[in-house]
Amino acid sequence: MANRRLAPAAEQPESFAFTPENAAWAKGQIAKYPEGRQASAVIPLLWRAQEQNGGWLPQKAIEAVAAELGMPAIRVLEVATFYTMFALEPVGRYWIQVCGTVPCDSCGARELKGMLHQRLGPSGHVDPTGTFSWLEVECLGACCNAPMVQINQDYYEDLTPELLGKLMDDLAAGRPVKVGSQIDRNASEPLGGPNTLTDPTLYDGSRVGAWRKRFEESRKDEGAQAGKSEAASSEQQAATNPKPARPDAGRAVETTSSDAPAQRVTAGEAPVKGGDRAEAADQEHSTAGKSEAPGSQPKAIKDLEPAGAEAGSQSSLPRDVPPPQPVASGEEEPSEPAPNAESLKLPKGRSKPKPPAKPERT
Ligand code: FES
User: Fold this and answer.
1) 101 within ligand 1 shell (Cβ under 6 A)
2) What is the pLDDT along the chain (362 residues), one digit of tens a residue?
3) For the chain, which residues make up each domain, given as ranges?
4) What spacing in Å lies between the alpha carbon of 173 and ligand 1's midpoint?
5) 66 C-beta closer than 6 A to ligand 1
6) For the domain 91-193, what is the CATH code?
7) How many C-beta neighbours within 10 Å does residue 60 have?
8) What's the rounded Cα separation, in Å, for the pair 300 and 144?
9) Ligand 1 mean position to 90 CA, how many Å?
10) Which CATH architecture has domain 1-88?
11) In what order do the strands lie in the sheet with 94-99?
């Protein structure tokens, strides 16, 4: 990186002033910023002053820009010395800025600098013909195509000392030159051409809706596969078990208790309460082997009802009469229970309880 100093006094002009056109242009640039923020126009004005002065910034131009913007001259000098885009010394007709930052340095910038030093002399000096001058600068933002140089306003990339020498020869001779990469590289693509995002469907629109087509095709394949499997399973079952399956085959079998209260009601018998069941069990245990006494009658439901039922504190339904059990498929529907009113001996004033509605079978 070269020193950023003003040119020697012997090279400095006596004065500097914008041309009327550039002064009007400068006024327009300053007007872009709000009142009190005119200093924001410092870089455009310095750039225009450099162009007007033949490609470099004399001290008088820096002071003129500072006066135009109402800034201290030292602050404008700070800007001019910070950015290498501002040349502080006279330059040749072609000003070569060589990037010396790491990527370019790793790719051959040192060889370029060596060639320039050999051909033009030290950096910051104009060659004897006034055609070229050169300067090492920091990254110019074209690292992908390193090493590179900027000559006036254009970039020249993928350089070798030989390519840069030929380029300088062409410029000096006024021959047309190719801007950008000096090898067969398109923009900043990898050497040898692109190797990513090469699928043409990314760009021709055919990818739009492709996922839906794939989805529909895969669903179609799955359906066909499932149909084949089902058919094969049926054929295999038919071969091993020729007996046709019942319509309700595979359904859960519902069984009824052999001593369910509903069955007793259906048979015209009084339901058995839990306490009586325990008592009977005790008696059965104690009189095992004895036959029931002749003429004995089952207990009437009135005798089995708790006292609270008479008082209406309990449900009007016999407590031990549960709702009818659902009938399993294939079994005969039981007939409507016909409770024996005599045997049930319902209390006076109490109507015969209606059995709960049967659940609908679906
Ligand atoms: S390092 Fe040279 S252009 Fe970025």
Assistant:
1) yes
2) 567 889 999 999 999 999 999 999 999 999 999 999 999 999 999 999 999 999 999 999 999 999 999 999 999 999 999 999 999 999 999 999 999 999 999 999 999 999 999 999 999 899 999 999 999 999 999 999 999 999 999 999 999 999 999 999 999 999 999 999 999 898 999 888 888 888 888 888 787 777 777 888 888 888 888 888 777 777 777 777 666 556 555 555 555 555 566 666 677 777 666 566 666 556 655 554 444 444 455 455 445 444 444 444 444 445 555 555 555 544 444 545 545 545 455 555 555 556 666 655 64
3) 1-88, 91-193
4) 28
5) no
6) 3.40.30.10
7) 16
8) 106
9) 24
10) Orthogonal Bundle (1.10)
11) 132-137, 94-99, 149-151, 154-157, 180-181
